Predict the 3D structure of the following.
Amino acid sequence: MSIKKTGIRALAAFFLITATAHTAPAGISAHSPDAGRTVRVGILSKPLRLLREGEIAPIVLIFPEGTRLEDESGRGSAAVRKASPVPSSGGWSLATDAGVFEGRFSLVMDTPGADRSFEVRVGNERRRYPLPLAIRSGAGDLELIITESLSRYALDAARAEYGPVPAHAEEALYALALLIEARFDGRGRAHNGYDACDLAHCVVYRGLTGAAGDKPEWSVDPRSLPCGAHFHAACGGRTLGERVFGRAGASCAGVRDRLVETGTALCGAEAWTARIGDAELASILSARNAPARSGLSIRIDDHTRRVSLRSGGELLAFPAEDFRLRVNRRKGWNFLKSNDYRVETVSEEGESVFVFTGIGNGHGAGLCQRGAVELARRGFSRYEILAHYYPGVRFGPTVEKADGTPPGVSYVL
């Protein structure tokens, strides 16, 4: 059932509920982003690392006819159709049909033609990325940087994060794209000379993965997201808010992921269990100045989502996501699957063992991707989805609108 409303104060057929009461509904904002804004993205981060480690076959870049290679050092330009990065003991070189570039170099590939994209071949995998492409080599590193419109990048990144999404749930995909776009709010670039990488700690991005999609009439005002534009795979029934990162203010609380009228859970519980001995945990954390000997005790505060460890007279506390990442770097990225868990201590063969029993997948802050798909399946719009996970979110027009009416959204109580 699709929800239709005449204005922001109309009542919705279904209500969404959050863990906090008396929050304001989503509204209109004077924020109006530049419709022609572009973003610079570092690409092929993982394939380049694997190529240097000898784990994959050569990477081949195939450019459309008419592509020119410009040497930014002023050494001229040349036609180019093919290029391959080659690791060496001293850094990188780039083998092209226009010659080999070694040492420090800075190149730009682009074409005036209609096809402004190029193909990347990594083994049997094929990807397409937009032109222009900048390639920089120096200090032993190689960087490949594409430039793309922000809205197109956000949609392709959302596709990469989600994977296949059923046609009836595409509003969830567009909601995530709007959230990703909101991350680029005019602050300084996160990397040296570009805005984002293509790895999970930024946003996963695998190039042009589908049609450009319709330009949304509204975008998220990033100023209405005081704790950041976060998302995760599955919350298991409640989001935890940005307190998992160490921000425990009321404005950073999570929401209950269900529909009030029916009591329907949007993201079903995804249970998991993990076990680790106190000595091993102490060893993992000792490099970070945690209590280094065995005899640890551990507790997690459900309100602040801080993990406290005590050993003798020593006490150390971590934000939940900090603790999870420190453990998972040693135990594997799926060891502690989420930050929503309880901990019990059991004795096994004379050793204390911590048993983590939890639900969900991911850090638990912001938009729950699985819950968003369920909302979309039930007819909720991308704006309603964002209003559920971000109470008080505001939207600004991306195009001129005759009446200035903001997108119709449900109240969040």
Summary: The two ends are 21 Å apart (CA to CA). The first strand starts at residue 27 and ends at 28.
